[in-house]
Every structure is written in C-alpha cells, then in structure tokens.
Amino acid sequence: MAISRRFVPTLQELRALAAVARHKSISAAARELNVSQPTVSYHIKQLEERWDVKLFRMNGRNLEQTELVQDILSEVSAINNGIENLSYLLASQTARKQLTIGIAPSLASIMLVPRLAQFSASHPHVAIRISAANRFVDFAEEKLDVALRLLPKPEGDLGASPLIPLPHERMRVVCSPNYLETIAGERLAPHSAPVELFAKADFIHEDEAFHWQKYLEASWPDFSGQMVQQLTFNNTDLILQSAIAGRGFAILRDLYVIDALNAGTLVEPFAETLPCQRAFQFVLPETSIPSAPVWDFINWLSDEMTKMQIR
C-alpha cells in the first residue's frame, strides 16, 4: 500500500468514511449525512482509489471495516469533531450581537422606538434588547451594555457631548390645538396666549413633581389662580397622550414634545420655558470595555437627539 503524502481527503470524504464505519451501511450513512447513496459511495471510492486500498468488505448484509479503517478511524473522528467544534465556535462568534439598553419607559416609547428602525437598518447584525425601567438598575443584574438615565447635571458650563447630548433641555407648556381654541374662544398663534388663559385651563400633573409651581413662579409670578389636580399621572407617556387628547395643559421636556409639536398634534401656547434640572446621560458599566456596537448606538442616538428641533 502506497499512500501519497500529497493527498489530503476532503471533509465530505472523511465524514462519509466515519458514517459508513459507524453504521456499516451506505444507505444509513447517506441518511445521517442527508445526501444520496451514490454520493456516499463516490466519496468512499475516491478514498480507495487514491489510497489504493480497500476500506470496507461485505459481511452478510453489512459492511465490515478493513484493518486500515480500524487503524485510522480514531484520527478521522478527531478531525471531524475538530471541524464541527470550529464551525460552532465561528458561528457563535459571528452570530448577531445582542445590545441591551437600559432606558426609561416613556423615553423609549416616545422618542426611541419610532427611530429604532433606522439604527437596525444601518446595523443589521446588532440585535436590540430594551430593558425599560424607571428605577436605577444594576448593570450586572440586568446585563446592560449601556443605559440612558435622567441624572443631575454635572457642575460647570456644559456643552453637548455624545454622553450628554442635550444638557440644556427646557420644559414647555403644551396642549392640543382644539383644546387651546376651545378655552381661548379663537384660534391663537403659537406663543401668543395671554396669562389669563391659565384661569380657564385644566392642568395635567406629574405625580410627585413640582414643574407647574416652578414654571409659574419663574414666568408668571403674579398668577393667582388655582391649579386643581384633576389628572395626575406617574408616567410621562400618559401625560403626553392626555395632552394630545385635549385634557388640558401639560408641561414636558423637549425630548417628549418636539415630535408632537412638529406633527401638529400639540401646540405651544406660551413662549416662556423652564430649564430642566436634570439631563439624560449615557452611563456605561465600570467593569467592562464598551464594544463597537455600544459606541455605534451611543453616537447614533446622540445625533438623533441633537437633531430634534421644533420646525
């Protein structure tokens, strides 16, 4: 027997050899490999011709391994297993990466979700998992890659940055166009409503927040009317939807109202705004280095946030 050192069997040939040896049958090997019987027979014949040996002999209705197959089968199996393990490793390394983002539920539903398809279109290999929660969550417990949280502004003169895209957000008074026309008795241009309109308005409140008091003290200190809390929510999305539905005046930050103002489902009766005391900031885990998809997401969403302007 003279085996050429230059001959390297293909993976298909080695898999066919191992399958026939295991099943003692060409047809059973073909079923396992999900190929035709002639294909398996061809692979075995190729090996026998190139090695100039007989690999199997008939023993009744079964095929019996020759001494050569018995000698090399463990090496063949090791090669096949090694290739399978390598294929699995490569598949796991190149599979879609899951990016887990922690974000407030209202910001996710109002601002992020309507834009998320744009990120997915430009990053098709990144799978997104949103972990929406108002509470301060633990990165390790929630398996977060990045979080966008509403935090007190750092001291100093802040400029926009990828991690703090909108350091100077404002709170704006908004309502539906029909509601404004109803209480004013006429259609008003934006920013032209008189202060007396507050006496006729219903105020939509945020639970355990004092935005209205601060706004009136800063912009209309002489206002002496009552702010009856007929509607109070602990969810910003519900406040926004109530304002759009015409239930009264709401006071919300830029990120929550700009899309609705541009769409015309909300209007801004007054020009006066209130600076936000806190700013949305990206927070990264301290125990790991952010991956490329994390920075891609931060830069993309930061850019989307800074592009949000009232038209």
Element layout with pairings:
Blueprint: H1 11-23, H2 26-33, H3 37-51, E1 56-59, E2 62-65, H4 67-94, E3 97-103, H5 105-112, H6 116-122, E4 126-132, H7 139-142, E5 146-152, E6 170-174, H8 177-184, E7 204-206, H9 211-219, E8 231-233, H10 236-244, E9 250-253, H11 254-263, E10 274-275, E11 278-283, H12 292-307
Parallel strand pairs: 3-4, 3-5, 7-8
Antiparallel strand pairs: 1-2, 5-11, 6-9, 6-10
Characterization of the model:
It is a single chain. With about 300 residues, the chain is an alpha/beta fold. Helix content is about 45%, strand content about 15%. Helix 9 links the parallel strand 7 (about 205) and strand 8 (about 230-235). Helix 1 packs across helix 2.
Order of helices and strands: HHHEEHEHHEHEEHEHEHEHEEH
Q: Approximately how much beta-strand content do the residues carry?
A: 15-25%
Principal-axes shape call: rod-shaped
Instruction: Kindly provide the radius of gyration, computed on alpha-carbon positions and rounded to a whole number of angstroms.
Output: 34 Å
Q: Uncertain segments of ≥5 residues (pLDDT<50)?
A: none
- Helical stretch count? 12
Instruction: State the total count of DSSP E strands.
Output: 11
Question: What structural category arises from helix and sheet content?
Answer: alpha/beta
| Largest sheet: spatial strand order | 4-3-5-11
| Average pLDDT over all residues | 88
Percent range of helical residues: 40-55%
Distance between the termini: 84 Å
Main sheet summary: 4 strands, mixed
